[in-house]
Model the fold of this input.
Amino acid sequence: GFQGEQIVAQPLVILLLAVSAVVTYQVAASYLDQAYARNAQVRALAQAHEVNQLLLAARDELVHLSRLPLTVEAILAHLGNMPDQVRNRYREVAFQGQTPEERFVLVNSGPTLARVPLEQVTGSQFGIFANGDQVAGKPAEFVHIGEPTEVVYPSVPMEAGVRTVAMHVLRLTTPVYAADKVYRGQLTLSVDLPRLRDIISVHTSKQSPLYLFPQESEQKKSFFFDASGWMLFQSGAPDGTKGELSVDRLRAGLQGDIG
Done:
């Protein structure tokens, strides 16, 4: 009778509700996975865009410097007029002229801009003049981007004396020509690599404009590679203490050959 039909219908209703719940969950999970994947892709594109903008700004600054009188006084005056946040993107400015008298290297230690003796850069494997005239014969405003490099200056003049300055940089170099098109030398401007680390750190943190709240508990890291595929450094905490660039933390927990 009617009660028998109710007994038969109840399991069917429960089964239907269960199937509906499973299907709804799978559809929702699928859409969320797609949204998270697209968000990760957009974050990667945003990081690449900001890194590209920083390097384009460095290129424009280098070309502008090449048009100034290439003297220590003129370059120091130009850098001194920059806002601190912009000036501290750059760690080295060096002109490798045709004669020793024309050459100079300026180092930005943060608090001060200082000229270092040429003896500290000549003969060093990673010295700023190590590659010679690598842009000789190239057209004006051509810019060569070097490999990421760790540099140590053992004696940089400071207000309180001299101290050792270590840095990780990406060097941009352009040829310099006189008004009569005669090659004068090469000018190099180096970008502070931790500035690039800071960019990727922001985009893997809650400060990212593309941050999704449901992903709060997930751990995200971005890695910076060189052209050969070697890992150089990883993103950090943008609101915490910024440590030195290192690959040791990247290698932790990995098996196999280092690198």
Remarks:
- The chain is about 35% helix and 25% strand.
